[in-house]
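During the reporting period the student researcher (J.K.) took over the structure-prediction task from the postdoctoral fellow and processed the backlog of single-chain submissions. One of the processed entries is reproduced below for the supervisory committee.
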Amino acid sequence: MTGLISGKRAYVTGGSSGIGAAIVKTFAEEGARVAIGASAHAREAEALARSLPANGGHLVVKADLTDRRQIAKAAEDVVAGLGGLDIFVHSAGIDVTQTAVTHETSEALWDKMLDLHLNAAFFLSKALIPAMLKGNKPAMVFIGSVCGLVAWEGDVAYNVAKAGLQHLARCIASDYAKQGLRANVIAPGVIDTPLTRNYASGMPGGEAEGLKTLAAMHPLGRIAVPTEIASAAAFLASDKASFITGTVLPIDGGLVNV
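J.K. obtained the following structure tokens:
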């Protein structure tokens, strides 16, 4: 690796698996100290922390990000544990395994999607920004989705949450540009993660056929692996991207624009 973010202090939510875990690994390999956010999978996050290059020490921060009191405590623990904060990545998320059109979407599903994907991003940002403004060229990276750019049938709550995440990043970018804090969004297409495989398992033909169907949606003819998202996150968080803010970067094999 190149030491792209060497010496930086980063907090990655949803860091115990999937895209979040890949980002944690990449950040540590690129020289950052990382606070790994986890909820139900703290044991996996702790094992991940032990496997990383030390870089002065990593930590695991356990919190239910649908609980605003736990969000506030997590923010305090991250800043105290790392001695400040330079990079915040909101990667925590869930997807639906059952589709529902708008009028059949339950209040519980709507609240669950908005709480974790959008509300948590806002309240964590609100809590972390004061510390980040004291950091070293601070940057935020939100893991969105192509579903925030186009409407995926039957996923209204997820679509709206990811679209809101994009505008949250733009608002943060606008509010703090003069103070040097950048905020950007990565909008992945379909990525090979446990969430994706769970989703594919409910498609006609089961997981294997479902993955083939999802791959065929992308002009490049495949789905991505988590490290492809992690590499972009490291770039956007680094000083190499110092003139990029308020941007949504699709990493989708041409799904949206081709």
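The committee noted the following: Strands lie at 9-12, 33-38, 59-62, 87-90, 139-143, 182-188, 248-251.
J.K. will present the remaining backlog at the next meeting.
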